[in-house]
Amino acid sequence: METTRLLTLAKQALLTFTVSLILFAPISGLVLEGFSFRNELTRAVLLAAVVAAGRVALSLVGMTAIGRKIASKVAGNGNGVTVMTGTEKSPVVILVLIFLAGLALPFFADKYFLGIAILALIYCLLGLGLNIVVGLAGLLDLGFVAFYAVGAYLLALGAQYLGLGFWSALIIAPFLAGLCGMILAFPVLKMHGDYLAIVTLGFGEIIRLVLNNWLEFTGGPNGASVPPPTLFGLEFTRTAKQGGVPLHDYFGIPYSADYKFWFIYLVLFLVVCLVVYAVERLRMMPLGRMWEALREDEIACRSLGVNHVFTKLTAFMLGASTGGLAGVFFAVHQGFVNPTSFTFFESALILAIVVLGGLGSTVGVIAAALVLTILPELLRDFAEYRVLVFGVLMVVMMIWKPRGLVRIQRPAFFPSSEPRDDTAPLSASPEVAR
Amino acid sequence: MNAPLLDVRNVTMRFGGIVANRDVSFSVARGSVTALIGPNGAGKTTMFNCITGFYRASEGQILLNGPAGPQDIGTLITRPVTGGSHLVTRAGIARTFQNIRLFKEMSVVENLLVAQHLVTANNLVSGVFRTPAFRRAEREAIDRAYHWLGEMNLTADANRLAGELPYGRQRRLEIARAMCTGPRLICLDEPAAGLNPAETHELSEVIQRLCKQHGQTVLVIEHDMGLVMRISDHVVVLDHGEVISDGTPAHVANDPAVIAAYLGVSEEEVEA
Predict the structure, then answer these.
(1) At A421, phi and psi to the nearest 5?
(2) Are residues A341 and A399 in the same domain?
(3) In which domain, by residue range, is A350 found?
(4) Does the CB of B143 have a partner CB in chain A at under 8 Å?
(5) Which of B95, B107, B117 sits opposite A410 (nearest CB)?
(6) Contact A306/B114, CB-based, under 8 Å?
């Protein structure tokens, strides 16, 4: 018994060592020097040995009782969807704590970290928007970045031609992006799956190419500058440029460039909270249910009298609106937009956020957005291998948790005859909870 | 009120050169159970798809006699822009499917709530802010869902995923879901397919209860002759896309044309 175990361990170690040696030898074992290369194979052998040792350690842990428990826990959620029992505790306390922590963040974070946080929240917003389209309604949209661009360019060009400010753009952007979504979606929604994906991919590229080539209007590759935000006529610049009063003069405090980012962060944070609330409500609402039903089975939906075209259209428009909102924040944060920010890679990244988070799960999408924006920053030390690490993580995730980071929970419903308080939907009578 | 609820008049359905239904006429009386039977490939499901608005019949009319007078199913499907099979359901014809089509990753109650989308408050704003009207509509919808779950003996499974349920219960859930649309006519496509005898028996009770207690009109396609003979008031037999017999179960069971269609005929009879 013991010997066979040792034998399998040795086999595993040898196999791992060989495979990793084959991988590492060309990557780190041969160092280019001018036109020839230097032999550094000891490094590769060392790396392979480390990997093999890690494999053996993992196997040894897996043989213990604790290791087995962990393994079964990790692998145990094959289905990925559960229905709540109705007895879960309401997460209000945690949500309030997270909300307060989010509000307080700018007072502790430095400028660099705040910049990352703003970017992460923008991707949260994008992820939530695409989650409506892909996760809830099941429409594969590969050109989501187009709506992001619409929002960003609305602020940039609106300020240039119409004198729009940050706030007016923030209100107009969802409607304009939603309108664009409708214009795109109306002729193509009768298509299914892959065909829709191709059409949306084309749309995303069309928007980018128009922005790139319509020199007189959009500034082409040179981009367009975006005015800094204002708050009730108060400006965040050192001297007033938009006819208002600088914030620090008004309050009599010393000038700091950070105020602008604090302001953007706080507004963005509040908007994200509102969108999260709305999306969570949507899942409990008839409209959200119809989206999910459409994703599950379109024919059955039609047999129940659901107008599938209009229902898909609403999903597309609401998703696009959220993308437009994110675009406004992106523009005002960067202070400058140009078409290179809106390539297909962005669309793919947003889609990765949604898929990684678990299609349809709000918490998962937020977590994935934070991970996928903060991770590349943390990996700056491995700058050259960043994309590699990123890719490996994605592959590993998809193997271990193909249904995304967070298991989806469906709400439970109970008839009204039972004594329960309607304002607290998570409380339930004991005889129903099984 | 003597006009039949559903009147199928001279319907022909062609797919290219293939004629699936030729000149089919029959009617479904209010409050009755009508069975549509026939050998495999007789065109029963095609007929069903015409009635429920998934196909547009090539020729003929399918009339649903509602309170607002007769309505042609065909014109509902072909209405420009807004037309489609969903209008047929809204007119009052609900259906189930031969291979169960539930929303598998949604809970049982949610399946029934989706079916009630016409009576719930679909307004985005009212839902986000949980207005009293929205809450009342939701509560009523949930109660109606539980009512039908009770009728189908599914209350204990209310908060489970629909895909987790055993096959027989999925069948009943599909009927409950169709009933939640508040139909005037419910069309069941082979409801007993894949059920064991006990489940089939339970199903026949459910269908009879629908008919007797709720005055529901039922149109059913079925291969299980025992079930058909037990529950139906009126049987229509299709073979090769044509109606070969139409009448009470006893009449149909003794009709030589039906026996010939099911069992084939001996050589002497063909020559005769």
Answers:
(1) -90, 125
(2) yes
(3) 102-407
(4) yes
(5) B107
(6) yes
